[in-house]
Specification:
heterodimer, A: alpha+beta, 5-stranded mixed sheet, 28% helix, 28% strand, globular, B: mainly alpha, Arp2/3 complex 21 kDa subunit ARPC3
């Protein structure tokens, strides 16, 4: 096989894989929408208030919010994104939360979750924020001791549960 | 006795490049919040490595070794298997691209080799996301943006690798290596 033919085959295969990726992603988005009984659009994160579905949001809903950043202790990588406090206050009035309101952030695909209390969320020094992962999903990171390592972070977040005490 | 495919010296060199990838990943930080930006170092090193050891499978070996080291060092956000396969597939992708494009000294070829090799890493991360049932992108066109970023940094890494090869050649490094074997 000559060089031209090899390059042609490689680039055709490369483009075919990319096309297949987008097709699968489109179908996954459709099936995730169906699984949420039409409550969520593809890519949206669900917020449950006191156990009941309340709303779904995506990146476009957070465009006006200021981002925060810190360097993680493990790899000294910059983690940057929207503070959980700002995300929640973007949709809810502050007086709906009390200091001991429990907020659980979870990922159903990775079976991971983290629970934080509103007074921790309010403290900007804790840097409880959503970093955007390489594949465009949300990742909960923080400098708080129980959430400052990769093994403790929650990747591919799809649900936030707010339980006022 | 059957002659081994890689000499001990070549294995040493490839392992050196594998370590260099891991060190670059840890020590070199670009202040960019763009997916796959480390590919600029990564692809440069792997392309230079595949020229220093000009045998089929050299890039795969470098990828495999760097994957083993990185997995044991706990690098990456998505677990050891994801890290191991990401690094390894970069090497395999580079070898496949080398079969088609050949000469890495040509900067256009080097850019394409960088693109294909780095795309391997993106593919592994995406496949893991699909298998684990990760939600589709939170941001509009998230996958497309990440893919473009990966391809651009792969190409830049390829060009950087190609330039490094040219500089090494000019300095007489490959003539020196030919004597060593």
């Amino acid at each position: 096989m000559n060089k031209k033919k090899r390059i042609f085959l490689l680039l055709t295969g490369f483009l075919a894989i990319i096309g297949l990726m987008f097709l699968i992603e489109y179908l996954r988005g459709k099936s995730q929408t169906n699984a949420s009984e039409g409550n969520l659009l593809p890519g949206q994160v669900a917020i449950f208030w006191n156990g009941k579905f309340n709303l779904g949001f995506s990146g476009s809903d957070l465009e006006g919010l200021q981002e925060a950043s810190f360097k993680d202790v493990e790899e000294q990588k910059t983690q940057q994104g929207w503070l959980l406090k700002d995300v929640l206050l973007n949709f809810y009035e502050k007086d709906l939360f009390s200091e001991d309101t429990v907020i659980r952030i979870s990922s159903s695909s990775r079976n991971l979750s983290a629970t934080v209390i509103w007074f921790e969320v309010l403290d900007e020094e804790n840097f409880i924020l959503f970093d955007l992962s390489g594949r465009g999903t949300l990742k909960l990171v923080s400098v708080m001791e129980r959430l400052d390592e990769r093994a403790e972070w929650v990747q591919d977040i799809d649900k936030i549960e707010i339980n006022p005490q | 006795m059957k002659k081994r495919y890689f000499s001990t010296f070549q294995i040493f060199l490839m392992t050196f490049f594998a370590v260099l990838i891991v060190v670059a990943k840890i020590a070199l930080r670009l202040p960019l919040q763009l997916s796959g930006h480390s590919g600029i170092f990564w692809m440069a090193i792997i392309i230079v490595g595949s020229k220093v050891v000009p045998k089929k499978g050299a890039a795969s070996f470098i990828g495999l070794m760097s994957g083993v080291i990185s997995a044991f060092m706990g690098l990456g956000d998505f677990g050891a298997l994801n890290t191991f396969l990401s690094y390894t597939v970069v090497g395999i992708g580079t070898d496949i691209a080398l079969l088609a494009f050949g000469n890495q000294e040509n900067l256009v070829n080097a850019a394409f080799i960088g693109v294909i090799g780095h795309f391997g890493k993106f593919l592994v991360k995406w496949v893991f996301g699909v298998i684990s049932g990760a939600p589709v992108g939170f941001v509009a066109l998230g996958l497309g943006k990440a893919l473009i970023s990966y391809l651009i940094f792969g190409a830049l890494g390829g060009i950087l690798g190609g330039l490094t090869i040219l500089a090494l050649k000019k300095a007489g490094y490959f003539a020196y290596l030919a004597e060593k074997k």
